[in-house]
Amino acid sequence: MHEPSLYQVQADALIRQLERDRDRRCHKLERETADWVRQHLREARTQALRRFHKAAELERERYGRAIATAEAALWAEARNRHQQHLSAMVQAVIGRLPAALEGRWQMPTQRRQWLAAALAEAERRLGPGAWQARIAPLPDQESLPPSIGDAHIAWRADPELRAGLIIDKQGARLDASIAGLLADTSMLESHILTLLGEVRGGGTTDV
Questions:
Q1: Total tally of structural domains belonging to the chain
Q2: Residue 205: its pLDDT value, please?
Q3: What is the pTM (predicted TM-score) of this model?
Q4: Tell me: the pLDDT tens digits for 127-141?
Q5: Distances in Å between the alpha carbon of 191 and those of 4, 85, 121, 187?
Q6: Residue 190: which domain range?
Q7: 151-174 burial string, b = 16+ CB within 10 Å, else e?
């Protein structure tokens, strides 16, 4: 066998050195690559978590708005139904009032109270003078006052009146008949709503 030449020995040593350098560089590159991958994976996970939390927050806000909108719509519908129910109750009460008032007029005590209240209001609003009064027919034995204060009253039975009376004085009028008492629908509805509230709250009232 031939002894390796000096050049061969030097070449082999250089090659081995290059191989060692290559291996070191490869290991270093592998470590750096692994570190880079781990770092970027952490960043990617962090960003993904941020995006997830942001998306979850936006979704919660969206559902919150949807729920608030639905609740507002339900409350509006409930208020609307409540108003419709109240309106129906008010109209039902108003529908019963003519018969209820006529029934009161047929009761002597209630009729006298009605008549006294109407005359007192007429005295306040119409003042003294000559009054022309039309009144729903009364029992024959019941008398009517010819005057109140300084006002003189000319009475006339009016069969067209189911209950109550109407007093005229020189163009001014007090209508205490059923139609007159029920003429102011806004005030009447407000009064009925107040009475309904008192009844629901535990109080009682007469119609």
A1: 2
A2: 42
A3: 0.57
A4: 999 999 999 998 877
A5: 127, 16, 19, 6
A6: 108-200
A7: bebebeebeebbbbbbbbbeeeeb
